[in-house]
Design a protein that fits this description.
It is a single chain. By secondary structure, the chain is an alpha+beta fold. Helix content is about 40%, strand content about 15%. The chain folds into 2 domains: about 140 residues, Arc Repressor Mutant, subunit A, CATH 1.10.10.10; about 70 residues, Ferrous iron transport protein A (FeoA) (SH3 type barrels), CATH 2.30.30.90. It has a 6-stranded antiparallel beta sheet. It has a two-stranded antiparallel ribbon with strand order 1-2. A hairpin with a 3-residue loop joins β5 and β6. It is globular, with a radius of gyration of 18 Å.
Length: about 230
């Protein structure tokens, strides 16, 4: 890794990695441009630079895939982001719906020494406040079989593994429903607009919107693993 990594390259690497962390289809340049909020021409130039550095595999008009070196670099950024989010919630009093944007800034600024101190102070956490696995310092990442809550049928029971942090409104909705990582839920009913869930240990069922269900991953008997 360069002594002074480029924040822009780090953002590209993290976005490419995140796109395939919970689904198998590789990201295209146009989708990458949309996610980063930049012009397609900017993506084209950056991808050429990253390919020259051995970080990305790319053919014209084709999808983007990280090389082994690119994946290692991406996981280092992901580790910083998720440890910072965990630190902000546990130590600084932030809500889980408030930390994503802060971590986006801080992940480029803190030193490896400070990151190690944060990790040690937090007790080497395995997951961030949203349930995402935190890569180890040597790049290891463990996940279990999963399913998207929006895709499971009534009758499915599973433990909430992670909840996407992209939409703070969704996080607030789920917080109000008492639903977070680690909770065991059973889907009792589902329509095009909402799902009805029974949370283990709770007396009443809760209803979540389909939008919220599309941001929740639960354990599954079978599914892709890392």
């Amino acid at each position: 890794m360069p002594a002074t990594p480029s924040p822009a390259i780090e953002d590209y690497l993290k976005t490419v990695y995140a796109h395939t962390e919970w689904q198998p289809d590789p990201i295209t340049p146009s989708v990458l441009a949309s996610k980063l909020g930049v012009a397609p021409s900017s993506v084209t130039e950056m991808v050429k630079k990253m390919a020259a550095q051995g970080l990305i595999q790319h053919v014209p008009y084709g999808p983007l895939r990280l090389t082994q070196t690119g994946r290692e670099r991406a996981l280092a950024v992901v580790r910083r982001h998720r440890l910072i989010e965990t630190w902000l919630v546990r130590e600084m009093g932030y809500g889980w719906d408030e930390v994503h944007d802060e971590a986006e800034v801080l992940e480029h600024a803190i030193s490896d020494r400070l990151l190690e101190a944060i990790d040690a102070r937090l007790g080497r956490p395995a997951r961030d406040p949203h349930g995402d696995a935190i890569p180890t310092a040597d790049g290891r990442l463990e996940r279990e079989p999963y399913a998207l809550l929006a895709d499971v049928a009534p009758g499915h029971t599973g433990r909430v593994i992670r909840i996407s942090d992209r939409d703070p409104a969704v996080l607030r909705e789920l917080d109000g429903a008492g639903l977070g990582p680690g909770e065991t839920v059973a889907v009792t009913d589902a329509t095009a607009e909402r799902l009805v869930l029974r949370i283990a240990g709770a007396e009443a069922s809760v209803t979540v919107t389909r939008t919220a269900a599309e941001a929740i991953w639960v354990s599954s008997a079978a599914g892709p693993t890392e």
